[in-house]
Amino acid sequence: MPILKEGQLDIISHSPEQTQRLGVRLGTLLRPGDVLCLSGDMGAGKTVFAAGIGKGWGAQTPLTSPTFNLVHEHTREADAQRLFHLDCYRLDSVDDIDAIGFDEILNGRGPVIIEWPERIAAALPRQRLWIELRVLEPTRRNFIFEGVGKRYEELIAKFRESTFGV
Length: 166
Fold this sequence. Notes:
By secondary structure, the chain is of the alpha/beta class. The chain has helices at 16-27, 46-57, 102-105, 150-164; strands at residues 8-13, 35-40, 71-75, 82-87, 112-115, 128-135, 141-148. It has one domain: Rossmann fold, CATH 3.40.50.300.
């Protein structure tokens, strides 16, 4: 678990189950307005990780790929809070996000998970948690977390502590 610099974390997952467990740990730490950007090639584990995040956050329904709908909105029974899961793979340009109500989604009503964020990079808030997923081997994935802004640096520190105890 090398620490690259403050606000960064580099870890390896050895299985889809571990990837989901990492997501669960991160999901328990989310607050309304948090923006998580999951970047990586097709099959890198973005949706598996997002499903874990949703589970840890307390989503009433499992997170699945919103590729065809672009946005899935999930609720949490405990407090009716919302979590938004976006998949920007099918968007041709940043202009297409107006059709999904992107500004409304970012208004802080709940955490936001964005798959394929590089497709809408110009519209993303500057402060965010960017997570790059890389395929190392058929079941191994490399996660590089980079937090921009105090909230996201703190989120990485809390995630590191809850996951590794350091």
